[in-house]
Write a structure and sequence with these properties.
Number of strands: 12
Distance between the termini: 149 Å
Radius of gyration: 61 Å
Helix content: 40-55%
Order of helices and strands: HHHEEHEEEEEHHEHEEEE
């Protein structure tokens, strides 16, 4: 009886120990232990108490230790694999995050560059427009051009009070054609100079102002007057006839007078002969003339005391301001240069004779 109670007590203690042990091991090991315990209890019931305890100890201890020892490498490998997967996943996530961050930064920089380029272009365009608006801008006032002024130029002049005034001089009327050069800019155009271009020839033209004929400063939103040329008023044949008649009267008067100084008569007759040689036909009346740099408006060949052939042998086409009528059919241009403004160049047509009673001979 005592041995029976001892065996039962031992079985209960061992069962409680196995139950506590199985509670702390993994679920797979728990199932394995429960099955082994059940089989062990079944076998122990058939055996004696002492033998049963010995058999249980002999069968349980090796089985549990072998199984756990076999599972430790697997558990370690699984844990290492999990750690490796976690590390790989983390590395991939980091690489993806870095790649995404780089792409985002690149896109942001590209957008920033495009924005800066657009803003820079707008700023440059605004500065260019401001500079262009601030610069002087020269142009012809075609609405009010040309302006026409009348001027009388002497064909000859004998400076001797003993000769009647109506005989010692003869005037030819010309119509000066002037264009208005306007400055549309917000800044004064400095050192403006005018040029009249006809074909391959160029002649300098002058401003109407008395103090600044050669160069002119045109203030902002202002105009100045550029005298291009003067065209004869009337028919050259009629003018030539009047001139010839006046020269004949002059010659008759001098020869009819008695001068105490015989050298004076000879000098006057020499001038008359030179004058007659200067004006032989109506073609010798200049139709279109420009200003002289030193003397302003005057009829070319005013130095009438020189023989005509001698005066013209060394004179080029447009020297002394004489524009041959055949040249006006060439392409003509008005050119205005400036120190700080863009070059003005405007095509014009010079007419062979005035188109109206005013004397306009320019077609813009």
């Amino acid at each position: 009886m005592h041995r029976y109670l001892y065996g039962v007590t031992t079985i209960l203690i061992l069962s409680a120990s196995f139950a506590v042990l199985c509670y702390f091991i993994p679920s797979i090991e728990y199932s394995f232990a429960v099955n082994n315990t059940s089989n062990l209890l079944s076998s122990l019931i058939k055996q004696g108490p002492a033998k049963k305890v010995t058999s249980a100890l002999n069968s349980i201890t090796p089985s549990v230790n072998v199984t756990r020892l076999q599972q430790i490498p697997n558990n370690i490998a699984a844990s290492v694999e999990k750690i490796k997967n976690i590390v790989n996943t983390t590395a991939n996530d980091i690489r993806n995050s870095i790649r995404k961050a780089i792409n985002d930064i690149r896109s942001a920089l590209l957008d920033l560059g495009i924005t800066l380029a657009v803003v820079g272009s707008l700023v440059v365009a605004a500065i260019a427009i401001f500079i262009v608006m601030r610069r002087p801008r020269l142009g012809l006032d075609k609405v009010h051009s040309p302006l026409v002024k009348t001027i009388g130029l002497v064909a000859y002049l004998i400076d001797d009070a003993r000769v009647p005034f109506n005989l010692r001089t003869f005037e030819i009327i010309y119509k000066i054609n002037t264009v208005l050069v306007q400055n549309k800019g917000s800044k004064a155009a400095k050192n403006c100079k005018g040029i009249l271009n006809i074909g391959n020839e160029e002649v300098k033209v002058y401003w109407s102002a008395f103090d600044e004929r050669d160069s002119m400063t045109i203030n902002a939103h202002s105009v100045e007057y550029l005298d291009l040329f003067a065209i004869v008023d009337g028919e050259p044949s009629e003018i030539f006839n009047g001139l010839s008649e006046n020269i004949s009267k002059l010659k008759s008067y001098i020869n009819s007078q008695t001068f105490t100084d015989t050298s004076l008569r000879q000098s006057l007759n020499a001038n008359i002969e030179a004058l007659s040689a200067r004006y032989i036909s109506a073609e010798d009346i200049p139709r279109i003339i420009t200003q002289s740099a030193n003397y302003g408006w005057r009829i070319p060949g005013e130095r009438y005391y020189l023989p005509r052939r001698e005066a013209e042998t060394s004179r080029p086409v447009m020297v002394d301001g004489n524009i041959p009528i055949e040249m006006v059919k060439e392409i003509s241009r008005v050119i205005v240069t400036s120190e700080n403004a863009r070059r003005l160049q405007e095509h014009i047509t010079i007419l062979e004779k005035p188109a109206d009673v005013i004397g306009s001979a320019i077609r813009l």
